[in-house]
C-alpha cells in the first residue's frame, strides 16, 4: 500500500504519503486563496521527500469536506485526475473525521471548521473514530444548546469561544491524519465513501434571477 492523501477543504493545503505502516512524508501550508497554486508543488515535494515516483502510488485519499466550493473542488478534481491517470482507486474521507482523528479524544466532543458567513461546518463525535451526526452548517449561536459543555476542535470552534468555550487545536485538518485514518479503515476491510464533495450549501456564484437568454435571430 502506498496512499497519497490530500485535502483542500480548509485554508490548509495538505498532502501526505502513507506506506501501509505510517506516514513517510507530509506537507501542510495555510493559505485560503492559493489552493490551486500550492497543491501540485506540495505533491511533488512529498513524493521527493519520500523518494518515490508518482506511478508507485496505489491509491488516493481525498478530503471531501464539508468546505467552501472553490477550495474543495481543487483537491477533489486533482484526486480524480490522478486516480484516472494512474489507474488507482480514489477514496473519500470526511474532513471533519480527519480532524477528529487527529484530536485523539476519548470522550464526546465536537469538530467545527470555519464555513465563513459567520457559520461553521460541524459534527458531534463519541470519540476520535466515531461520528454521531451528519456534517452540518449552522450559525454557532443556533447550535449552542447541542454542543454545550463539550470540548471542541477546529478553526470554527476557535473563532467562536462563546459557543465553544473549551475549544483547542488542531485548527486545520492534516493529510497525515486523513492518511492514517484511511489506512486503518482499509486494513479492516471497510469501504470508504466515494470522493464526492460535501458542499452543504450552494456556491456563492449564481445565475442572476432576472437573467435573460439572448438567442440569435
Automatic annotation (TrEMBL):
Organism for this UniProt entry: Streptomyces glaucus
One Pfam family, short name: TsaD
Protein name: tRNA (Adenosine(37)-N6)-threonylcarbamoyltransferase complex dimerization subunit type 1 TsaB
SUPFAM superfamilies tied to this protein: Actin-like ATPase domain (SSF53067)
Residues covered by the Gcp-like domain: 32-145
Annotated Gene3D superfamilies: 3.30.420.40
Entries under CDD domains matching the protein: ASKHA_NBD_TsaB (cd24032)
InterPro entries listed in its UniProt record: ATPase_NBD (IPR043129), Gcp-like_dom (IPR000905), T6A_TsaB (IPR022496)
Domain of life according to the entry: Bacteria
Stored NCBIfam families: T6A_YeaZ
